[in-house]
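Exercise 3.2. Students should predict the tertiary structure of the chain below and write it as structure tokens, then compare their answer with the key that follows.

Predict this chain's 3D structure.
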Amino acid sequence: MSHMEFKAKIGAGLEHKVAWLWGRSSETLGRAMGMEYEELDRERVTATIPVDGRTRQPFGLLHGGASVALAESLASVGAWLNVDETKFDVVGIEINANHVKGVRDGRVRGVAHPLHRGRSTQVWEVKISTESGEPVCISRCTLAVVAKRGV
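Answer key:
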């Protein structure tokens, strides 16, 4: 998917941030996993990943690490959409995940929403489900909001 093919629903006033983010996403873990954003907003970030050779473990199931990578990616982007990026960076400091269902093929979808957006931390919940809506993984990610150096 090229920069021009990015088709996610983008929240009001976030177009410039998303364009910047997408321009820097060509060589990232998310891109390597086949992640496709569907929605980017301050209240909700969604994306899918395929369950294929890039994301399966040797036993043929979606790798738990792929679910965690999807969850942290969504939480991080969501938190970043909520800060002034000229003054602050957002970094993950803790993530947990409960893997509740194995998946062998298709796509899974992650939906992230904020539980807490403070001055120095944010907490996001991410629910990952199958194409039919069955829960696969429930995750919570805590992110630090840190001042950029030299600003």
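Discussion points: The mean pLDDT is 94. The radius of gyration is 15 Å.
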